[in-house]
Amino acid sequence: MDIRSRLNELFPLEHWKRAVKDNAWTLSKWLLFSVLIGVVVGAVGALFHHAIDRVTELRQAHQWLVLLLPVAGLAIVGSYHVTGMSDDRGTEFVISSVRDAKPLRIRTAPLIFLGTVLTHLCGGSSGREGAALQLGGCISSSIGRWMKLDAKDERVITMAGMAAGFSALFGTPLAAAVFAMELVSVGVMYYAAIVPCMLSALIAQMVAGFLGVSPTGFTLLAVPETTPLNLVRLLVLGILCSLMSILFCAAMHLGPRLYGKITQNPYLKALIGGCIVAALALLLGTDYQGAGMDVITQAVSGTARPEAAFLKILLTVLTLSAGYKGGEIVPALFTGATFGCLAGGLLGLPASFGAAAGMVAVFCGVTNCPLTSILLSYELFGGQGVALFALAIAVSYMLSGYWSLYAAQKIVYSKTRVEFVDRKTH
To answer: Fewest C-beta in 10 Å: which of 99, 137, 202, 411?
Structure first.
């Protein structure tokens, strides 16, 4: 047998031709869709960002707007009812869409956009990055259906939209891309989506930046040295942050049940919740309205009130459980930053670094996404102290157990043993 025949037997030419053709087609397809998703979701995300900033300025200038929160709640609930979306479960639907190939409806986008804007305008306590996941997910899923993608590709394009939405608002493309792949099933990464998620996130950030959205970032006042004592301090901080993340998740799940004991009427829930939140907002001040990014910045600068973390959890639960819209992610960052600022200082860590570590550790505990949390710490804090952040994140991830913000999320592999568990979160 000559050399050419032997090589062809070992490496069949037709096989390689087919593999190259298939890979070239797959790459070309995802390059095209990623650019499209990045541009569209990046532009919508920028519009959403500016809308939230504008209504926040209006609310801060006119504090009486908080008195309209019950009216805003009625409008939000009514809009979802009229459009046949009363059963919408927000980010839960997006997660289910990726795992179970359930379709997302395009009407979710304007509803979550306007609902979140109204919530922020009238002083409800909610974030916006969770809403961005829904915006990106439903827009990209709808584009996938219009383009006649099959169910498997539609799941990938939905993840790309989630990454683009998160990146457009936060300006953290690495964390956004990994978050979309890591969020759905804990212990399993959807690596098939890595190219569309990464490219969509980068393009969305570029488009949002072109439209005036600056990336979120913080300056640390001090980074501790890597010493045995500081490692012990971070271990303890990670333990405490895991407890805070469990408290946050438990409160978020308890809220709807408590409202349900009062009434099953969604309009009454919004009215009652709006009145309670408005009264507390007038009593406590503006720190707990909206997302609270100013308070997070203060915490990373080394200043936080002892009760801030717990009051933010309370106001967020009362707001979102009553039917108002927004996200849970920034309130979780608020909780982690204010708690970490105080706990870190008490443990002997710089308060600024404690706030930063608390942010990403609590974020990890409520989302069960350790790789995303490490990348988020890198992008938010300029790469300083990443290994130390990772230690607090790892402890919070392990000890937060099966708790999660999202009931649709599944724990596929155990956090403490090399064991397949495939169970729902709390």
So the answer is: 99
